[in-house]
Design brief:
The complex is a heterodimer of chains A (about 120) and B (about 230). Helices cover about 90% and strands about 0% of the residues of chain A. Chain A has about 120 residues and is mostly helical. By secondary structure, chain B is an alpha/beta fold. In chain B, β2, α2 and β3 form a beta-alpha-beta unit. In chain B, α1 runs parallel beside α2. The chains are: A mainly alpha (about 120), B alpha/beta (about 230). At the A-B interface, α4 of A face β3 and α3 of B.
Chain lengths: ~120, ~230
């Protein structure tokens, strides 16, 4: 039962964080829905591990091996990596704007004080 | 003839040892302009570049952090817009550009035949550019042509001039050397009239050391690709 409690706590934490980001307008609805579905899936698998067998038999097909599952996992991780890149890029652009605007503002102030 | 004002902008990063002599070599007067603002955009230097530049009589705009020549260009153009100048000329602060070429680069702007002028090092047979650098620049020109269809003889030149019309239409976003390519793309997107003017390059041991390495072409290419993907 302990792994299920850990998984549930972690999922709840991430979902609350994602909801908070969405509520503040920092995350669009599709992204919030993506995390909601992802973590609900994690919860379902944590509490009902038998679901993975059902997925293998009915969705991936009985011949799906570990390679298929790892392939899906790699695509998922690449997507997460891309999301992190976008966030880092946004922070970088915000930082650039801040540095440039501050420099222009300080220049204006120095020009005004020289008048 | 109405009064015309010009901003000479030099992006600089840790150029304390040369910025004084570079500023000293700039003309204090030009025949077409009755007011000249000399601005150094200090991109977070840690060697006192701003103090040397101020002592040499330049106005200094300082970035708190070093973010690259692209952001220094963005800040320089923003300050020029604030000052409301009629023309802007930008050149490197490491002394590789000859101030004598200022008139040639500004001539098409003054004549009203161009909105944007690119000083090109590769149309001048006597430019003295090292072979490896010449090849690197030609490779970048090819990349620019393949990726955007823009044909230019020196896509990485930092010697450029803009008129006010161009100044009000060029808004850039990249922070590193890829800004050179972004400017060309922005010029075409804005439908500006572009002219290339041959310039001389002064290669010293210092400017060779400070210039971007040829391998930087790969970094520029990756950054441009990432920018195209992320919008």
């Amino acid at each position: 039962m302990i792994p299920e409690i850990i998984a549930a706590s972690f999922a709840l934490l991430v979902l609350l964080k994602s909801y908070d980001e969405f509520r503040r307008g920092r995350e669009p609805l599709p992204v919030f829905l993506f995390w909601l579905v992802t973590w609900l899936a994690v919860l379902v698998i944590a509490f009902f591990p038998g679901v993975t067998f059902w997925i293998r038999d009915h969705i991936l097909g009985p011949r799906a091996g570990l390679g298929t599952i790892f392939g899906i996992a790699i695509v998922f991780l690449l997507f997460l990596n891309y999301r992190m890149y976008l966030k880092a890029d946004r922070v970088e652009r915000d930082l650039q704007k801040l540095i440039s605007d501050l420099a222009v503002h300080e220049f204006e102030k120095s020009q005004d004080s020289n008048k | 003839m109405t009064a015309q004002s010009l901003a000479i902008i030099l992006p600089a990063y840790n150029e304390a040892s040369v910025i004084g002599s570079v500023l000293g070599s700039l003309p204090k007067k030009l025949p077409w302009f009755d007011q000249i603002h000399t601005l150094v955009i200090d991109d977070g230097s840690t060697d006192g570049t701003h103090l040397v530049a101020q002592a040499a009589g330049a106005h200094v705009v300082r970035h708190r952090l070093n973010r690259g020549v692209g952001l220094a260009t963005i800040t320089g153009l923003a300050v020029a817009r604030q000052l409301g100048v009629d023309a802007v000329v930008m050149l490197d602060s490491d002394g590789q550009h000859d101030p004598v070429d200022l008139m040639a680069v500004l001539a098409p702007i003054r004549a009203g035949s161009a909105d944007f002028v690119l000083g090109t090092r590769l149309k001048n047979s006597g430019s003295g550019m090292p072979v490896i650098r010449r090849l690197g620049n030609r490779a970048m020109n090819l990349i620019v042509w393949l990726s955007s269809g823009i044909k230019t003889s020196d896509s990485q030149s930092g010697f450029r001039a803009y008129n006010r019309y161009a100044l009000e239409r060029l808004f850039l976003t990249t922070s590193g050397y890829e800004v050179c390519t972004e400017i060309l793309l922005a010029v075409r997107r804005a439908g500006l009239r572009q002219v290339e003017v041959p310039i001389r390059t002064i290669y010293t041991a210092y400017s060779r050391k400070k210039g971007q390495p040829v391998t930087n072409a790969i970094n520029i290419l990756i950054r441009l690709l990432v920018k195209a993907l992320s919008g």
